[in-house]
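Hello,

Our lab assistant flagged a job as stuck in the queue for most of the afternoon. It eventually completed. Since we weren't sure the result was trustworthy after the delay, we are filing this so someone can double-check. Below is the sequence as submitted and the structure that was eventually returned. Let us know if re-running is recommended.
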Amino acid sequence: MNRQPPVLEVRGLTTEFKGRKTAVTVVDQIDFTVHKGETLGIVGESGCGKSVTSLSIMRLLGKNGKVVAGSVLFEGKETLQLEEREMRSIRGNRLAMIFQEPMTSLNPVLTIGRQIGEVLQLHTSLGQEERKRRAIELIAQVGIPRAHEIYGEYPHRLSGGMRQRVMIAMAMACRPQLLIADEPTTALDVTIQAQMLGLIREMKQEAGMSVMLITHDLGVVAEMCDRVLVMYAGQVIESADVRTLLRSPKHPYTKGLIRSVPHHSRGEKRLYAIAGNVPSPGEWPVGCRFAPRCTEAMPVCYQQSPELKNMPDGSSCRCWLHDAEGRDIP
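-- returned structure --
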C-alpha cells in the first residue's frame, strides 16, 4: 500500500459536452487518487473517457465541455473553484501535461526555444539569457542532439520522436509535482517508444514527481505503472495495483483487454478481439454498459448498473459477477 500523501484526489468527477439538442455526459462520477511518487495508469479503448478525464483535471475542455459535478484536489487545493488566472499559475508549473499529438500541440510558427522559453517566462523569474540557457539544457536533457541548433528550429523540421521529446522538455521545465502523459507514445515506432518511456521514468525518479499515464497499451502499463484504473464508457470499471490487475483481472472487459495482447507462448493463429465497439456518449445502454459485448452477461446486467465494489485483495470492480463483499458469484 502506498503510504505517501496524495498529490491528486478526484472525487465524483462528471464532465459533459454540449450536443445539438442536449448536453452529453462523457465522464461519469470518476473517483481516483494519485500519490506522491507513484505512476497511475488509466487504460481503455478509444472513446472510454480517458483523455477527457485528463483535460477536465487540467481545465482545458474548451467552450463546449464543462465539469458539472465532483471535486479535483491538487496538493490539497480545489482547482475547479480557482479563477482562471490562479489555474494558469498551476498549469504548466506544478501540474504539467504531455499531449497526445505533439505536432498539433506545438506552435508551428514559433521556434522550439521560444516555446520552451515562454513556459519559463510565465512561471519563473529567470532573465532572457538564463531562460535560453535553461531551455538548451532541457533540450539536451531529453536526449536531443545539437541542442543549440535545435533551440532555433521550428517544429516541422523535427521528427515525431524529437517533437515528443520537446513536449517532455516543456512539461518538465518547471519540475512539476504531477505529470499527466496522454498517450505519449502514440504513432511512434517501437524503438522510439521505448526511449520515450525510459525518459519519462528517468525524469520521474530525478524529480520525485508523480505520473498519471493514459494509454491503451497494457505492455506500457506493465512496464511503467504502480496502479491501474480501467475505464469503459465513462466509468471506472476496475482498479488495482498493476501486478494484481495483470495476474488476476476481475472484470470481463479487463480480461478481454489482457487476452487481446499478442503473446508468443499461446500459439494462437488469430488474435483475440472483444466483439463490438465502445458505445458513444449519449447511447450508453441500461444496466452494465459492457453487457452487450460481454460473454458472461446475466439478465441483471441488462437491467441494473453495478456499483464499484471493493475486493478482498484491495482492488475494486464494477461487475455483477462479484457480490457486495467482493466474492465471486457462482
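-- support follow-up --
The delay was a queue issue, not a problem with the job. The result is valid. The first helix runs from residue 50 to 58. Residues 104-173 form one domain.
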